[in-house]
Amino acid sequence: MVVEFKNQSLKVRFNDSYHNGNIPMLNQLLLQNKIHRTLNISACDFLGHESDLQRRFESNRTVTELIMEYSNNIDILNAIFNSKKNALHQLKLPQSLSIPSILSPFCELLKKNTTFVEIDLMDYTGFKEEAFIIKLLDLLREHKSIRYLSLHVEDIQLSNQKETYMIKSLRRDKFIARLCISESIISREFIEALYHASKVNDTLTYVNFYNSQVTGKDKAQLHSLYASGNLLQLGFYEQTRWHITVGESKPSRGKSTLKFHSYQ
Fold first, then answer.
1. In terms of CATH architecture, what is 1-116?
2. How much is the pTM?
3. Which domain of life is it from (predicted)?
4. CA-to-CA distance for 172 and 175, rounded, in angstroms?
């Protein structure tokens, strides 16, 4: 077992495939925890013990943010979203939701949840499924509690439905706070929507592009948002987010003289 304490984060990983003892050990750590607000665990460590994990969430009163990687199992997602009277308000799902068949059930669970305020789906790889993006944006527009979304989207193309819905949401809604875009062709209309979300709506604070086509003029307009403080992070990369995140490359400046200011 590996336990890491960093700032207000508690990270726990169990290194064997014998799961029966994992719940009691996690329970003991949570009972002793009085200061760490973020719990970072792996769904793989609790397969077959989802109901026990749900009870741990329900008895928790200290942890307010849950980071759970490899959440690709509907029982694990049920344990997260169906917990009653828990203190969880922030949810981050790294390396999760990678099985297409789980995307629709995830949306249904998200729709019914009334406790989460912030959802982070900004993983190493982006979501390509058009139907999922549309359904996610539609349900968050009407959601009662969720106010902040971090999202990584792939394959935005000129005038496809994904672009149309993203533009509509960026202009009209105020829940997209952080956005990564990969393998996309970025139109002038999309840049204007990003500008509106950051400058006018004052909600979008983070934008990174990976291996996407963005004109120099559009880069300059977004950079003005960074200069004014509306965007706290802005990056344009030739490589994938995976390569950038693991530190194998730096921001691409290409032929532009602009300086870009995002490193994750």
1. Alpha-Beta Horseshoe (3.80)
2. 0.88
3. Eukaryota
4. 10
The CB density around residue 195, as the number of other CB atoms within 10 Å, is 20
CA distances from 36 to 6, 60, 62, 116, 210 (A): 9, 12, 7, 18, 33
Q: Give the integer Cα–Cα distance in Å for 235 and 207.
A: 7
Residue with tokens 């990687």: 69
CATH architecture of 119-264: Alpha-Beta Horseshoe (3.80)
- Output the pLDDT for position 257: 31
What's the pLDDT tens digit per position in 156-170? 999 899 999 999 999
Q: Which two tokens stand for residue 206?
A: 């983070």
Segments of the chain with pLDDT less than 50:
249, 252-264
Can you read off the two tokens belonging to residue 72? 């690709």
Tell me if 234 sits within 8 A of 260, measured CB to CB.
yes
The pLDDT value recorded for residue 59 is: 86
Q: What is the DSSP letter of 230?
A: S
188 vs 134: CA distance, rounded Å = 21
Task: Give dist(CA 57, CA 69) in Å, integer.
Answer: 16
Task: Encode pLDDT of 162-209 as tens digits.
Answer: 999 999 999 999 999 999 999 999 999 999 999 999 999 999 999 999
**Domain layout of the chain by residue ranges:** 1-116, 119-264
